[in-house]
Amino acid sequence: MTDIPMIDTPSPNFDERSLPISMLVLHYTGMPDAASAINWLASPESRVSAHYLVTEDGQIIRMVDEGKRAWHAGRSHWRGIDDVNSASIGIEIVNPGHEWGYRPFPETQMGSLIPLVYDIVQRHGITRGNIVGHSDIAPARKQDPGELFPWAQLARLRLALPRPTKNLMDPHWSDGGFMLALERFGYDITDPQAAVVAFQRRFRPELIDGVIDGECRAILLALLLPKPRGDE
């Protein structure tokens, strides 16, 4: 399957997939330390799991076989898929998260995460637009992996969509028009404010205010073009 070195710590929390793998979802653990996160994901009581966990010092823990449906996404939606768990591979990235002291993701951690993402994406033919954060698929519930996650680093390696930066033009959509475009891009817009915040957290992390402005409209328009234009 893969020759990346990893430690097996099996979780009992999985079942059978009902969809082919077409997505990769990145999470942060949002717990005080790696040990408590691993214990939680491996505990039958938690009813949550992920296929992999990457520690801050770069260890990769394999918890659920990729062929099985891990329970990482919860109630979520992306590009017409509601059973995201069935269609995705989930990676938990150790970070205390917004509740326990959110901090940047160390280079050592990213140095292990990137080859893992590359390996998964190559084997399953996952497109850049389906490499997402938990907040992208569950905007009303989740903030992870958050605004400090280096999406641009992945985008430069074609492992995520780039943030559009070139020839940006404001299409001057109404707020309703923006929401329709956001839904077309892939987001669940049931909670419009949460969807806007999630979009900003991913594609304009320096200003997450939930306000639909010209820059947000221009970025979204560029993302909807056939070829995303960004700093790749």
From TrEMBL:
GO terms for molecular function: N-acetylmuramoyl-L-alanine amidase activity. One of its GO terms (biological process) is peptidoglycan turnover. Residues 9-146 form the N-acetylmuramoyl-L-alanine amidase domain. Gene3D superfamilies: Peptidoglycan recognition protein-like (3.40.80.10), PGBD-like superfamily/PGBD (1.10.101.10). Keywords: Cell wall biogenesis/degradation, Hydrolase. GO terms for cellular component: outer membrane. It catalyses: Hydrolyzes the link between N-acetylmuramoyl residues and L-amino acid residues in certain cell-wall glycopeptides. Belongs to the N-acetylmuramoyl-L-alanine amidase 2 family. This is N-acetylmuramoyl-L-alanine amidase.
